[in-house]
Amino acid sequence: MSRHPNWLKVSIPGGITYRKVRQLLRDKNLHTICEEARCPNRGECFNRGTATFLILGDICTRNCLYCAVKSGKPKPVNPLEPREVAEAVSILGLKYAVVTSVTRDDLDDGGAQIFYETIMEIKHRNPNCIVEVLIPDFKGNDNAIYKIIGAKPDVINHNIEVVEELFSKMRPQGNYNLSLNLLQRIKEIDSNIITKSGFMIGLGENIDQIIKTMYNLRDVNVDVLTIGQYLQPSIHHAPTIKYYTPDEFKYFKDIGYQIGFLQVESAPLVRSSYHADDLINLIKKVKT
Asked: What are phi and psi of 147, to 5 degrees?
């Protein structure tokens, strides 16, 4: 019997472009959230010649029950990382680059300076490349938020990850309202930046809680929403309670547009950076 429903089956990663991307990442000693979080779409994305760069190392200071990224004591920050990421963007010829990080509560600024330098390096070496950053909550540090915005990324994403009712169990070191306030603060500082957020379903939430979360995100002027199916990374992580059908995901997508999101990606295999480059047309429209 298949572990997952048929609509969750993906191809085994492979192909020339896939191998090229993996080799480039190894050569430059770079990490991706695609691999560290065991994303089911990594084969497809690598074959498109893209990846979501994971900066500030590959060890997170937090331990969320749904996340496959390693948790523990991080290594020192690599000061050459921004340059290496920007060079990888150049080699891959990306028109849209996504940069995220592990959470680094051990750093005074949460790693905001490295985010800043990475964005600036990408834009310097690749002036036509659109940059999206997927940031942690920085414990609500306003200076860190200002630092990120000062680099002028085109899109700032901060995932709410799960519905509020599951936060204390799944994200014990996070705070639902702090995450909402961060997203609101970004818009208050610079209303021209497109904001994005997303969450997983299948962890035990109900329909009303999903829809409430959508409204909460729209109330703080989030522009783009992603919703995807949670898949248990290992027996040590939270179990998958429910597999939502493609029709149910379409239902959430329709509601998202009805309540005012500019773009909604809602499907079983959607992840926060899945086909992120599809935002290019939206960004051009917003900026004209």
From this structure: -60, -45
Instruction: Give residue-wise pLDDT tens across range 166-219.
Output: 999 999 999 999 999 999 999 999 999 999 999 999 999 999 999 999 999 999
Is residue 161 within 8 A of residue 228, CB to CB? The reply is no
Extract the tokens encoding 263: 């773009």
Query: In whole angstroms, what is the distance from residue 42 CA to residue 10 CA?
Result: 10
What gap in Å lies between CA 160 and CA 197, rounded to an integer?
6
List the Cα angle 201/206/211 in 5-degree steps.
Answer: 80
Report whether 115 contacts 147 (CB < 8 A).
yes
- Name 133's Cβ contacts closer than 8 Å, sequence gap at least 6: 98, 99, 100, 115, 119, 148, 153, 155, 156, 157
Taking CA 16 as the corner, what is the angle to CA 10 and CA 22, rounded to the nearest 5 degrees? 80
- Going by C-alpha positions, the residue among 115, 138, 137 that lies closest to residue 56 is 115
Distance between CA 30 and CA 101 in Å, rounded?
Answer: 12
> pLDDT by residue (tens digit) across 64-111?
898 888 889 999 999 999 999 999 888 888 888 889 999 999 999 999
| Calpha distance 70→74 (Å, rounded) | 10
Q: CB neighbours of 43 closer than 8 A, spacing ≥ 6?
A: 10, 11, 12, 13, 14, 15, 18
Q: Are strands 130-134 and 59-60 parallel, antiparallel or unpaired?
A: unpaired
Contact (Cβ atoms closer than 8 angstroms) between residue 28 and residue 121 = no
